[in-house]
Write a structure and sequence with these properties.
Alpha-D-phosphohexomutase_SF, 581 residues, Alpha-D-Glucose-1,6-Bisphosphate, Chain A, domain 3, alpha/beta, seven-stranded antiparallel sheet, 24 strands, cytoplasm, six-stranded mixed sheet, magnesium ion binding
Length: 581
C-alpha cells in the first residue's frame, strides 16, 4: 500500500522491464543471524513497508511459540536516522510498522520515540527483562541500505537455530494481517510504551560503574574531538562525557546532526580510516585537540586517532585499540580487586579473526581468555553464559572496531567505548604518556602483535565458491596448500567443513557453518592468516597476524615479514587477476 514503491513497480510493468522486475522480485531477502540487510526500494529483495510487515509477522509468530509470557513482557524497537526519499522508506517508518504488527496481536511494545544508538536496544532487553529487541539500522553501510537486527531475551544477537525458525515463520506469514498498514493504531494503544527517558537515565548510570578516575577527568586539560558521521551518536557521547565528569568533546559541526544522505563522506564507515576523518583532523588542529573519537552512524563502533609528536595523525586499528582497552580495563579491575583468588573467575573474549593480544595478557596475568567465531552475536551469547555461571566478563572486542566494555550491554557499544577511551587517555596524560606510547608499552610487556587486514570485492558468488574450492583441492583432491610462496603452512582450520589439522581427531572445536566460507592458515614463522566471506557485503576478507614473544623488539623486521606473507597470500591464494577481484 505504499504509493511510492507501488508506483515504481507499476512503472516497470508498463515499460515491460523484465530485467529490473527480476532484480526486485527474483528472490526474497534472506533472514540470517544478522537479521536483514539490503537496499531500501520496491520488491521482496529490498527493505520496504511490505517486507518489514512480513518479517515482523514471522518474528511475532516465532516469539509466540517460544514465550508463553510474550503478552506480559513484550519487545523493544529502536531505529536510526536512515531514510530513502524515492521509495518512502525510513528507519522510523519501519519501526512504527513493526510496532503495529506486535500491538495488533496484543504484545506490549517499547518503541523509542526518537533515534538511539544500537546498543540501547540490547540494553533495554536486559534492563526491562523483555522477550526480544529489534533495531532498524544498516550501521555503516551505504546510504541506500537499511537493516533489521534482532536480539533474544538474553540481550545478545540471535544465533542459529533462531534465524532458521524466524525465516520459516516469515515464509508462513506473508499476507499482511488486517491492521498491518494502519500505524496510527499504535498511538492510542495502551500497549505502546516509550522507554526513551528511562533508558537514557539508567544506561548512563550503569556505564558509570566503569568510571574509575573521576578526579582526573574533572581536572584534565586533554581535548577531544568527536564525530558521529551524520549518525545518531552526538547527543549520547556528550551525555556519556558528562556522566564521567569529562568536559564535552568538540563536535564536528558538519557531521554532528543526523543526515541520511551522509553528504561529507564517501562511505559512512570510520573503519575506512583517514578519508572519513578529514573534517575531524581539521577541527582538532583548529581547537588544539590531541585525540579524535569517531562513531559509525548507529554508534556501536568506535575509531580513535591521536596526534603524534611528528604532527602526523595515527588512526588506531581495531586490534590496537582492543589491546589498549583490554590492558586498561584489566588494570582498573586489578586496582579494585585486591583478592588474588578473584582472578580465576575473570574472562575476556575476542573473535577468531581478531588479534591474540588478549590471550597474551591473560596468560601473563592469570585470567581466562576465550575466542569465539566472528561477530558479536557469538561473544554476546558466550559472555551471557559465563555471567550466568558467576564469572566476570570484563571485555570483548573484534578487529572491526567493535568493543564491549560494559556488562550491561552484551553487544558492541561505541558510546561507552568512547568515554572509557577518553578516561584512559586522561589518566595516561597524568603520567605524560600518549595512547601510542602506552600501546608500545603493552607490546613490550606482552609481546608484539602485528596485524594486517583487507578485502577483495567480488560480486559473483560462483567465483567465491571456486576460489575456496581451489584452496581445498590445491594439490589434487582434498589437499590444502602446503606452502604460500616462500612461507610453509603448518596448520589448517576450515570452519566451513569442520576440519582442523591441529586437533587429534582433526575436528574443529569452534562451531562450523557450511553457509559461509572461512579457512585459517597457520604458518611455520608464527604467522596466522584467515580468509572468509562477509555476511553483509560482497567481500572476501583476509586477516593476518604475526605474534612475537615478549622481548623481541625488532618491529620493523616483523612488519616486513608480515607484509611479505600478505603479498604471498594475495598472489597465490586470492589470485586477483585470474579471479577478476
Amino acid at each position: 500500500q505504499n504509493p511510492k514503491t507501488s508506483a515504481i513497480v507499476k512503472q516497470l510493468v508498463t515499460e515491460g522491464n523484465a530485467g529490473e522486475l527480476q532484480k526486485y522480485f527474483g528472490s526474497r531477502m534472506e533472514f540470517g543471524t544478522a537479521g536483514l540487510r539490503a537496499a531500501m526500494g520496491a520488491g521482496i529483495s529490498h527493505m520496504n513497508d511490505l517486507t518489514i510487515i512480513q518479517t515482523t509477522q514471522g518474528f511475532c509468530r516465532y516469539l509466540e511459540k517460544n514465550f508463553s509470557d510474550l503478552k506480559k513482557r513484550g519487545v523493544v524497537i529502536g531505529f536510526d536516522a536512515r531514510a530513502h526519499f524515492s521509495s518512502g522508506g525510513s528507519s522510523k517508518r519501519f519501526a512504527r510498522l513493526a510496532a503495529t504488527t506486535f500491538v495488533s496481536q496484543g504484545v506490549p511494545v517499547y518503541l523509542f520515540s526518537d533515534i538511539t544508538p544500537t546498543p540501547f536496544v540490547p540494553y533495554t532487553v536486559t534492563h526491562l527483562k523483555l522477550c526480544a529487541g529489534i533495531m532498524i539500522t544498516a550501521s555503516h553501510n551505504p546510504k541506500q541500505d537499511n537493516g533489521y537486527k534482532v536480539y533474544w531475551e538474553n540481550g545478545a544477537q540471535i544465533i542459529s537455530p533462531h534465524d532458521k525458525g524466524i525465516s520459516q515463520a516469515i515464509e508462513e506469514n506473508q499476507e499482511p494481517w488486517p491492521q498491518a498498514w494502519d500505524d496510527k493504531l499504535i498511538d492510542s494503544s495502551i500497549l505502546l510504551h516509550d522507554p526513551y527517558a528511562t533508558v537514557n537515565k539508567e544506561y548512563f548510570k550503569d556505564i558509570q560503574k566503569q568510571c574509575f578516575h573521576r578526579n582526573i577527568n574533572k581536572e584534565t586539560n586533554l581535548k577531544f574531538v568527536h564525530t558521529s558521521v551524520h549518525g545518531v551518536g552526538h547527543k549520547f557521547v556528550q551525555l556519556a562525557f558528562k556522566a564521567f565528569d569529562l568536559s564535552p568533546p568538540f563536535a564536528v559541526p558538519e557531521q554532528k546532526d543526523p543526515d541520511p544522505e551522509f553528504p561529507t563522506v564517501k562511505y559512512p564507515n570510520p573503519e575506512e580510516g583517514k578519508g572519513v576523518l578529514t573534517l575531524s583532523f581539521a577541527l582538532a588542529e583548529k581547537d588544539g585537540a590531541k585525540i579524535i573519537l569517531a562513531n559509525d552512524p548507529d554508534a556501536d563502533r568506535l575509531a580513535v586517532a591521536e596526534k603524534q609528536e611528528s604532527g602526523e595523525w595515527k588512526v588506531f586499528s581495531g586490534n590496537e585499540l582492543g589491546a589498549l582497552l583490554g590492558w586498561w580495563i584489566f588494570t582498573c579491575w586489578k586496582n579494585q580487586n585486591r583478592d588474588t583468588c578473584a582472578i580465576k573467575d575473570v574472562y575476556m573474549l575476542s573473535s577468531t579473526v581478531s588479534s591474540k593480544i588478549l590471550r597474551a595478557i591473560a596468560l601473563k596475568e592469570g585470567f581466562h581468555f576465550e575466542e569465539t567465531l566472528t561477530g558479536f552475536k557469538w561473544m554476546g551469547n558466550r559472555a551471557k553464559q559465563l555471567m550466568d555461571q558467576g564469572k566476570a566478563v570484563l571485555f570483548a572486542f573484534e578487529e572491526a572496531i567493535g568493543y564491549m566494555c560494559c556488562p550491561a550491554v552484551l553487544d558492541k557499544d561505541g558510546v561507552s567505548a568512547a568515554v572509557i577511551t577518553a578516561e584512559m587517555a586522561s589518566f595516561l596524560a597524568t603520567r605524560n604518556l600518549s595512547l601510542s606510547q602506552q600501546l608500545k608499552a603493552v607490546y613490550d610487556e606482552y609481546g608484539f602483535h602485528i596485524t594486517k587486514a583487507s578485502y577483495f570485492i567480488c560480486h559473483d558468488p560462483q567465483v567465491i565458491q571456486q576460489l575456496f574450492d581451489n584452496l581445498r583441492n590445491f594439490d589434487g583432491k582434498n589437499t590444502y596448500p602446503k606452502t604460500c610462496g616462500r612461507f610453509k603452512v603448518s596448520g589448517i582450520r576450515d570452519l566451513t567443513t569442520g576440519y582442523d589439522s591441529s586437533q587429534p581427531d582433526q575436528k574443529a572445536i569452534l562451531p562450523t557453518s557450511t553457509s559461509s566460507q572461512m579457512i585459517t592458515f597457520t604458518f611455520a614463522n608464527g604467522g596466522v592468516a584467515t580468509m572468509r566471506t562477509s555476511g553483509t557485503e560482497p567481500k572476501i576478507k583476509y586477516y593476518s597476524e604475526l605474534c612475537a614473544p615478549p622481548g623481541n623488539s625488532d618491529v620493523e623486521q616483523l612488519k616486513k615479514e608480515l607484509d611479505e606473507l600478505v603479498s604471498a597470500l594475495e598472489k597465490h591464494f586470492f589470485q586477483p587477476e585470474k579471479n577478476n577481484l
